[in-house]
Design a protein that fits this description.
CATH topology of the largest domain: TIM Barrel
CATH superfamily of the largest domain: EAL domain
Helix content: 40-55%
Shape: elongated
Number of domains: 4
Structural class: alpha/beta
Largest sheet: 9 strands, mixed
CATH class of the largest domain: Alpha Beta
Number of strands: 26
């Protein structure tokens, strides 16, 4: 015979749905919504319908003129039947089906006796009332749970009576003559059908309470009912034996008890094997989940099933308080609720690494005191990186027994697997976030959060493709703030940064989703706006953007007015390619800046060399893609000793028809066409490979590479440098990256972050063209640099201008005072070389020593120069 497992009652507390076990005497909690949406109400309705059905059967049989019992002393035998019904409820074997458990016991004995000897109405009433008393006294059931099981007993008895009398309508009154075949078949059919009805009703109550998926497990529950045939058989044999010889009942009782104990041992062994299978299934179920939000509900739902618990939750210790993540339904979304400090006190050791087993009634608790609210519980620590966390289950299901040390060990094994799965999920989530952040940084300006030049190219390309399909147009507007350098110098970079952020936000707000604003670098912004393709529409859009900037801007106690030089290019009239449009808008912008007209629309007359320049840009792109650009090396020498210390790598381009193209010509083209990044990385890779070859040849020199103005805005630069160093086998301290002061001023915060990451690699950093920028000495002192490089404009005039000599002397002294190496470039005569040696300059380079040389010639020069030094030393 089967009984309902103690159910779970969902208590809705505001937005949090907390699942708790229904304990003794717990009142049903009120929850919002219609009454049929509450699980307790649905279970109550099912109980009432079952009770009414059983009552209807009793009423139909109450009219029959039959004796209460055919045994002598009929009323006393009814009492004996009731005692037997109550006692057999204390003997049950629990067969687990997920969180449900079906109790198979000896209740068929009184049921068979009742069917064969007693009035049908008496059987139903006695079965329900006496069985309910047994459940209350022997199995401590109360409240709605007890009411449902009493109704279930009544329905089972009603079904058994109906089936029995349908097959053997005249069987009541069997005597010493024994039972015929029809009586046996009727009895088997009655108990079997009653058991099936019980399984269906148990599945229904679990489904309407909290788990609609329970219907999928109905076949497994039905398969566990085969023991009913055994107990019915023993009951029939017992009845037959009692009819023939009363003393034979003792032997039958012994056989029944032995069979019961053997079956219980078999089920316990099966449950042990099932735990191993469940552990394997638990691990397998977690393998397919990756996101934490998806994984946590699965973990908690599986823990409730495997450990036969009413609740399961993940508790996190965050900022001095506990946060509970609980299920809102079977494997459903989770919600978070701050825990109650008093109620959570018992599980605190688990957060510190010690598992906790909490009994429902702690040892030494007086009988007069109530049990622990919400029943017993277990808590085990779970590792989630640096976070303190614990998995907690509570409210053991009564038919499954209370939580024990054995179940605690199983819980710890499950928690270890859950911790591994959750740890992987947390790591995957963090890597995804970091990848998304890195992707965002690579496409956005760190100061304003606007798209950068690279992303603007991509967006413009996509917008142009859409415009071609729709037959519309696109306007590209470049804005360069006037007098921004003066604001930076007078008010400081913090004010300048704030102004740039305000300008970007104003432009973005003005467009309100009708276009894209980007920051290309420094004080230059770019805007793309969909238009009808006419120049007039492009100018109208640009005029509106200019008007937005001219409104006063409050900066603390100051009121500033930002004006801009604006260049406009309209697609398709002025080009249908991102690079062409941006370049044409740039030409228009500089034309407006030169004649102070403010806003200019692109005109081919402003760009007389545009065909040649476009062709040169296309050729440069091809050369970069094919890696046709070369690298020349200009030696660096220590002036006091003449020792070669390293070289500066310089890009060289030999055009197939024009011949050698000066760097001053193709480097700006690369910067304006988006080619400077691949060009820089190409030069860097070639320089590092050559430096490694020098080292293998016995010349452990350093190599310096210039970075473009936008290189420090590339969030991937440090990782790229580290990768190239590893691939070429170069130590980081042998690479010097040269940057200009203006490069840092473009975005001080973002540049500083990139410089710090490069410094952490061990790469040396140098300020190129030192003395020509506008950074303060305080900012220079804060930069993680290793050397300064005096601009050649000062070095080349040392012999002619005493002021330039003073600048160079001051630069050398300042660099040494800041513990920096000082390099002078542009050394073109012996007198300058000698002066720099006397002033203590650390390294020099220039035509006096050598022009930039191809790689093989450079190595020959190093060998020859070193040999001459050795010869000079031997002659002295």
């Amino acid at each position: 015979m089967e009984r309902a497992e103690p159910g779970l009652r969902r208590l809705d507390r505001g937005p949090v749905a907390l699942i708790e076990p229904a304990g003794p005497g717990d009142p049903a909690a009120a929850s919002p919504g219609p009454w049929w949406s509450r699980p307790a109400s649905r279970v109550g309705l099912l109980t009432a319908l079952m009770t009414l059905a059983a009552a209807g059967v009793v009423a139909s049989y109450a009219r029959d003129d039959l004796p209460v019992s055919l045994l002598p002393g009929g009323a006393w035998w009814v009492a004996a039947l009731g005692v037997l019904c109550a006692l057999t409820e204390g003997f049950a074997v629990h067969v687990r089906v997920r969180r449900g458990a079906h109790a198979i016991g000896l209740s068929e004995f009184p049921m068979v006796l009742g069917l064969l000897v007693f009035h049908p109405a008496a059987v139903i009433v006695t079965r329900a009332l006496a069985g309910g008393a047994g459940l209350m006294l022997l199995r401590r059931q109360r409240g709605g749970k007890l009411a449902f099981n009493m109704a279930l007993l009544a329905v089972q008895a009603s079904v058994a009576v109906l089936v029995f009398h349908l097959i053997a309508p005249h069987a009541l009154g069997a005597t010493a003559d024994g039972l015929d075949l029809r009586d046996w078949l009727a009895t088997y059919a009655a108990t079997a059908v009653a058991d099936v009805v019980a399984v269906v009703l148990l599945t229904a109550v679990i489904a309407v309470h909290d788990d609609p998926g329970e219907w999928r497990r109905l076949p497994a529950a039905l398969r566990s009912g085969w023991m009913v045939v055994v107990t019915t058989t023993v009951a029939l044999v017992s009845f037959s034996a009692a009819v023939q010889a009363r003393w034979a009942l003792a032997l039958v009782a012994v056989v029944a008890v032995v069979l019961f104990l053997a079956y219980r041992a078999y089920v316990q062994l099966g449950n042990g094997n099932a735990e191993v299978e469940q552990l394997y299934g638990f691990t397998r179920a977690l393998d397919g989940h990756r996101a934490v939000d998806d994984l946590v509900p699965v973990v908690l739902d599986l823990l409730r099933d495997v450990l036969r618990a009413g609740t399961a939750e993940l508790v996190l210790a965050e900022d001095g308080r506990l946060t509970h993540i609980r299920l809102t339904g079977p494997a459903a979304a989770t919600v978070t609720e701050a825990g109650d400090p008093a109620a959570d006190a018992w599980l605190l050791p688990a957060l510190d690494g010690a598992p906790v087993l909490r009994p429902a009634t702690p040892p030494g608790t007086p009988a007069s005191l109530p049990a622990v609210p919400h029943g017993d519980g277990m808590a085990v620590p779970v590792g989630l990186g640096e976070d303190r966390a614990a998995l907690v289950v509570g409210g053991s299901l009564v038919d499954g027994g209370t939580f024990t040390e054995a179940r605690m060990r199983l819980f710890q094994a499950l928690a270890n697997h859950a911790a591994a799965a959750l740890g992987r999920a947390v790591l995957v989530d963090r890597l995804r976030r970091e990848a998304a952040e890195k992707q965002h940084l690579s496409l956005h300006d760190p100061l304003t959060g606007l798209p950068n030049r690279r992303y603007f190219h991509q967006l413009l390309d996509a917008e142009l493709a859409a415009a071609r399909t729709a037959g519309s147009g696109v306007a590209v507007v470049l804005l360069d703030l006037d007098r921004f350098k003066e604001i930076n110098d007078a008010l400081g970079h913090d004010t300048g940064d704030a102004l740039l952020r305000e300008v970007g936000e104003r432009l973005r707000a003005h467009l309100d989703g009708r276009g894209v604003v980007a920051r290309l670098g420094g004080d230059e912004f770019a805007v793309l706006v969909p238009t009808d393709g006419s120049p007039a529409a492009a100018v109208t859009a640009a005029t509106g953007l200019g008007g937005v900037l001219e409104r006063s801007i409050r900066m603390g106690p100051l009121t500033l007015t930002a004006r801009a030089s604006i260049g406009v290019a309209a697609a398709p009239l002025h080009g249908d390619d991102p690079e062409v449009l941006i370049r044409h808008a740039d030409v228009a912008m500089y034309a407006g800046k030169e004649n102070h007209s403010g806003l200019r629309l692109y005109d081919p007359a402003l760009d007389v060399n545009s065909p040649e320049r476009l062709a040169l840009i296309a050729d440069l792109r091809t050369a970069v893609d094919r890696r046709d650009l070369l690298v020349a090396f200009q030696p660096k020498v220590e002036p006091r000793t003449g020792r070669v210390t390293g070289a500066e790598a310089l890009a060289r381009w030999h055009h197939p028809t024009r011949g050698a193209v000066p760097p001053d010509e193709f480097i700006p083209l690369a910067e304006h066409s988006g080619l400077v990044r691949p060009l820089t990385l190409h030069v860097l890779e070639l320089a590092l490979r050559r430096r490694a070859a020098w080292a293998r040849a016995g010349h452990d020199l350093h190599v310096a590479v210039n970075l473009s103005p936008n290189s420090l805005l590339d969030a991937e630069l440090p990782e790229t440098v580290a990768r190239l160093l590893a691939q070429t086998g170069n130590p980081a301290h042998r690479l010097t990256l040269e940057i200009t002061e203006s490069t840092i001023l473009t975005d001080p915060a973002g540049s500083m972050a990139t410089l710090e990451r490069l410094h952490a690699l061990g790469v040396k950093l140098s300020i190129d063209d030192f003395g020509t920028g506008y950074s303060s000495l305080g900012r220079l002192r804060e930069l993680p640099i290793h050397e300064v490089k005096i601009d050649k404009s000062f070095v080349q005039r040392i012999g002619d201008d005493h002021r330039d000599r003073a600048v160079v002397r001051s630069a050398v002294q300042l660099g040494h005072a800041l513990d920096l190496e000082v390099v002078a470039e542009g050394v073109e005569d012996a007198a300058t070389y000698a002066y720099l040696a006397r002033e203590g300059c650390d390294s020099v380079q220039g035509y006096h020593l050598s022009r930039p040389l191809p790689p093989d010639e450079f190595l020959d020069w190093v060998v020859g120069h070193s040999a001459s030094l050795i010869l000079s030393a031997s002659q002295e």
